[in-house]
């Protein structure tokens, strides 16, 4: 417990531009933590290659030959950030006391990893990295992110505001996470449901070290929609409420029309008819769309397809739940940059 085996899980998708620098910085950190006896010598960095199309995996492979901290996991295809992260967490939990997840672009401050470990040693099972401010984001991303967190809170989804996937989880928390079997994991929504003793650590988020975001607008919107529909049936209820309101409204207009008919004032009416047909038609389509989203979700859930498949792994030494002691002649070669 005093020197926990820590694994840092880094999902990577087409990150060849940034991976060299990321490895360098993380290796320095691991060396320092090990020298200061904060972590067990069997602690590792686990890069999960999420079906990259560039030279990401070759870089990881090459690095693993000279850098004893580096281990790797290659997924057979691009499974998406959340699935790649989950693959890393599930793999690492078997041989780690705690696992820290961080993005490959090192936008998150690795300096606070010490605070994560400190909190873990104080007994926290989950430590969330929370951004102090969002200045490094574009105006657009800031506004949409704030809107998203606000909306999620309104409809009763308990997210940690301004926390992405930079966090520490203990083995216990990870074992608990395994019990959430949904095929569409939205980790930052699921993990707060685990409960247990948690802590927040605050940090400033930087610009990407290199390369481009792997979350273009389309992926971001899909991610937000997934987050909402995986955790809440409020949108369906909303459609029902609108439906009820539309029915009430149509009763009123019905009464209004009847009065006009009795009075004999029925010539006009084409425009109101058109408006209501379009309005009700629109509402119906919207309702069917929202319900369809949920049915689509059910469809995917019932199939219980594997969320990812692992093609290869590098240097992962797991033996049951206990880390294997390395033989003397097997000691990793750690290269100083
Ligand atoms: N990522 C991944 N699979 C994907 C998309 C992204 O593993 O399909 C990884 C990516 O390599 C990075 C992390 O997820 O380590 C976050 O992506 P990015 O930094 O591009 O997102 P942003 O910070 O712009 O939201
Ligand atoms: Mg990023």
Automatic annotation (TrEMBL):
Keyword Transmembrane helix recorded: yes
Enzyme Commission identifier(s): 2.4.-.-
CDD domains per record: DPM1_like_bac (cd04187)
Keyword hit for Flavoprotein: no
A Gene Ontology molecular function term of the record: glycosyltransferase activity
Keyword vocabulary terms for this entry: Glycosyltransferase, Membrane, Transferase, Transmembrane, Transmembrane helix
Pfam family, one: Glycos_transf_2
Transmembrane segments: 238-258, 270-295
Entry membrane topology: Multi-pass membrane protein
Entries under SUPFAM superfamilies matching the protein: Nucleotide-diphospho-sugar transferases
Lineage top rank: taxon: Bacteria
Location relative to the cell: Membrane
Enzyme class (EC, first level): transferase
Residues covered by the Glycosyltransferase 2-like domain: 7-174
Record protein name field: Glycosyltransferase family 2 protein
Organism expressing this protein natively: Fictibacillus fluitans
